[in-house]
Amino acid sequence: MDNPRDIRVTGVRTWLEHYDFRTPLKFGGVVMYKTTILNAEIQVETRDGRRGAGLGSMILGNTWAWPSRVYGFQETMSLMEELGGRLASLIGASRDFGHPVELAAGLEESWLEAAAELGREKRLAEPIPKLAVLVAASPFDAALHDAYGKVHGLNVYNAYGPEFMNRDLAAYLTGEFAGEYLDRYTLRQPKEKMPLYHLIGALDPLAEADIKARLNDGYPETLPEWINRDGLTHLKIKLNGSDLDWDVNRVLAIDRTCREVQAARGVEQWYYSADFNERCPNVRYLLDFLARVKAGSAGAFERIQYIEQPTSRHLKEDRANKMHEAARVKPVVIDEALVDFEHLQLAMEMGYSGVALKTCKGHTQALLMAAAALKYGLFLCVQDLTLVGESYLHSIGLGARVPKIAAVEGNGRQYCPVANTEGLKKWPEAFTVKQGSIVTANLVRPGLGH
C-alpha cells in the first residue's frame, strides 16, 4: 500500500552566492581564493495534500571535485553551476512519491545522465566526474530530507525507521542489511558537542616569522593564535605527497609549535589528521612518512589519529596501492574515492580501514555509507569542504547524529568567515569553538535540525 508519509516535489528554486576567501587555502597542489554556494529550496506535498518546503546548501567545490587537467577553475565552476540548473529542472519535473532516500537514490542515474548530456553538448574533452555531479546534486538531496521532516513536523533523523522508509537498506546496499533501516545507524538525539578539526593549509603560517604582511582583520593568523582563541585539540594537516622531506618536516614543525602552546595551556592530549589529497605516488611513500615522523617525534606520531586518501581516487586503476600494511599502523580513510557503495567495497578489499563522510556527496549517500561503515566496523569521521552557513550546520548535524564519529570539521570559519555572519547570529554555539569543540545539542528542529 502507498505510504501516506511519502512526499513528491512540487517546485524548485535555486540561487548562488559568491565569496572571496580572506586568505588563500592550498591543498592537493592547488590554491583556492574564492568559493560559490549553490542553494536550493524544494517545495513538496504529501499524498494527502499537506505542503512544506526544505532548504539545501552546498559549496560547489570544483577544485576538489573536478581536478581537471584540461579546464581551468572558472571553466569547471561554470559547468558545475550550469549542471546545477539542469538538476533543478530534472527534480522539479519529477512527480514520484517516496521517502527522500528513495527519491534521491532513484534520481541519481538521471543526474549522471544530465552531466553526460551536458558534456556532449559542450563537446567537453573530458567527462564531468561523478564526484562533481554528486556535489552539484547535494543541495537538492539535502532539501528533500529537510522538506520531509518539516512537512511532518519532526526532525528528519527520526524519520528513518520502517514506518517512514518504504525499503530496507538491502535495497541500497547488500542483502546483509535485510530488515535494517537507517534508524539503526543514527541517533534519536544529537550528541551534546563534537570536537572540531582545525585545518592547517600548506600556506598557513605557524609563527609570526611566516607572515609576510598581516591581514589585521580581527581573526587569528598564526597557529598559536588559533589554538589559544579556540582551545583547539584537533588539527588537520594538509601535506604535499610528493616531497617527503617537506611533509615530515611540516608535521614535526607543527608538533613543536603545538607542544609549546598546549603546555602553556596545560593541555596534554590533542590529535592530528594527515591529509595528502591523494598525492602520494604509492603506499610506500605513506609508510616512509609514518616511519620518519615516528623517528622524529614519537609524540607527533602517536597524535596522528588517521590518514586521509593518501593515493589516487581512481581505485580501479590503482589497485596496486593496497593499504593493508599502512592501515595496521594508522586508520586510512577513503575520501575522494568514495562515490558509491561499490567503491567502498573495493576500498575495503584494498585495505582501507575508514570512511570520511561528506554531505557534499549527498545526504542520502552519507547516511548509507555511515550505515555500511558502522556495520563493517570501520573508522568514521565527518569532513569538510570549507563549508559555511547552512552547509556547515548540515555537516556538523550529520556528525552529531552518527555514532562513533571521531570529530567534525569546520574550516569555513578560517578562510571565509564572512559567509558565516548570519549563521553565527542564529547559532552562536555551533559556530563558536570553545575548548576545541562546538555545541550540537540544539540541532533538533524539524527537518535537518537547523
Task: Describe what this molecule looks like in 3D.
This protein has 450 residues and is α/β, with parallel strands linked by helices. Helix 6 (244-265) links the parallel strand 5 and strand 6 (271-275). The chain has two domains: 7-184, Enolase-like, domain 1 (2-Layer Sandwich), CATH 3.30.390; 187-439, TIM Barrel (Alpha-Beta Barrel), CATH 3.20.20. It has 15 helices and twelve strands. The mean pLDDT is 97.
The CATH class of the largest domain: Alpha Beta
Summarize the biggest pleated sheet: 9 strands, mixed
What's the CATH H-level superfamily name of the largest domain?
Enolase-like C-terminal domain
Beta percentage is 15-25%
Question: What secondary-structure arrangement, pairings included, does this model have?
Answer:
Layout: E1 7-27, E2 30-46, E3 51-59, H1 62-65, H2 73-93, H3 100-122, H4 130-152, E4 193-200, H5 223-230, E5 234-238, H6 244-265, E6 271-275, H7 283-296, H8 298-303, E7 304-308, H9 324-327, E8 332-334, H10 341-349, E9 354-357, H11 363-376, E10 379-382, H12 389-401, E11 408-409, H13 412-415, H14 421-426, H15 428-431, E12 437-439
Parallel strand pairs: 4-5, 4-11, 5-6, 6-7, 7-8, 8-9, 9-10
Antiparallel strand pairs: 1-2, 2-3, 4-12
Helix pairs in contact: 2-3, 2-4, 3-4, 5-6, 6-7
